């Protein structure tokens, strides 16, 4: 898995999968995603008033209910796509 990060100018990693997290050089931008609350420079799920949202850091981006596809793996895919820009 780590070969794909060679020569990268920025990386996106699943923060819930320690094995996929590369050893990255200092100063290389790193964005994370996961099905838990987002961290700094991270995308994740936040819950507000009983509703789940795709979120970046502390900002809700859109309700999960608006995704056209269902399931946690599709939520993770959407978060990864957001992290890729």
TrEMBL record:
Keywords: Ligase. This is UDP-N-acetylmuramoylalanine--D-glutamate ligase. Residues 1-84 form the Mur ligase central domain. One of its GO terms (molecular function) is ATP binding. It comes from the Bacteria. Transmembrane segments: none annotated.
């Amino acid at each position: 898995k780590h070969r794909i990060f060679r020569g990268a100018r920025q990386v996106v990693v699943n923060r819930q999968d320690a094995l996929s997290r590369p050893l990255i050089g200092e100063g290389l931008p790193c964005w994370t995603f996961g099905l838990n609350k987002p961290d700094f420079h991270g995308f994740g799920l936040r819950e507000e008033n009983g509703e789940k949202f795709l979120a970046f850091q502390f900002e809700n981006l859109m309700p999960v209910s608006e995704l056209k596809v269902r399931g946690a793996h599709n939520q993770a895919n959407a978060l990864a796509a957001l992290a890729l820009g």
